[in-house]
Amino acid sequence: QVQLVESGGGLVQPGGSLRLSCAPSGSIFGINDMGWYRQAPGKQRDLVAVITSAGSTNYADSVKGRFTISRDNAKNTVYLQMNSLRPEDTAVYYCNAKIRDGWYWRDYWGQGTQVTVSS
Predict the structure, then answer these.
(1) How many other β-carbons are positioned within 10 Å of the β-carbon of residue 104?
(2) Cα 27 to the chain's mean position, in Å?
(3) pLDDT on residue 91
(4) N or C end of the chain: smaller count of CB under 10 Å?
(5) At residue 63, what are phi and psi to the nearest 5 degrees?
(6) CA nearest neighbour of 114 among 82, 92, 81, 85
(7) Which residue, among 28, 29, 36, 70, has the nearest Cα to 53 in the 3D structure?
(8) Closest CA to 22 of 97, 91, 98
(9) pLDDT in 10s for each residue of the chain, 119 residues
(10) Which residue intervals of the chain are DSSP H helices?
């Protein structure tokens, strides 16, 4: 059974930094796009950043210049470096990845990690 395991959330003051990590557990046969989404209370889940297997990236306008997504293909791990954090970045952050776990490619989600930006 494949699961995406996230780490790195927490409480940080405005202007601070956090780094999120996400990697699959279990046997996999390939990973394609990996990304991060976030959901604030009462709002829909929105894309934060995505990175392809070749390293191309795309960011939400609200995080451009502050957040950086990267991946280590040898470790099947995706990272989200978040700098200059603002209170409006407070949300549950979810990792997403397209994984081949057998014959098929499937969309997997992590359990979510809370990021709170507050003084």
Answers:
(1) 8
(2) 20
(3) 98
(4) N
(5) -115, -5
(6) 92
(7) 70
(8) 97
(9) 899 999 999 999 999 999 999 999 988 999 999 999 999 999 999 999 999 999 999 999 999 999 999 999 999 999 999 999 999 999 999 999 999 988 899 999 999 999 999 99
(10) none
Would you tell me how many other CB atoms lie within 10 Å of the CB of residue 92?
19
Q: Which two tokens stand for residue 59?
A: 């960011």
**Ramachandran assignment for 84, one of left (phi > 0), alpha (psi -120 to 50 degrees), beta (any other):** left
Chain length of the chain: 119
Shortest CA distance to 35 belongs to which of 50, 19, 55?
A: 50
Q: What is the pLDDT of residue 1?
A: 86
52-57 contact pairs (CB < 8 A, 24+) = none
Q: How many CA atoms lie within 13 A of 32 on its CB side?
A: 9
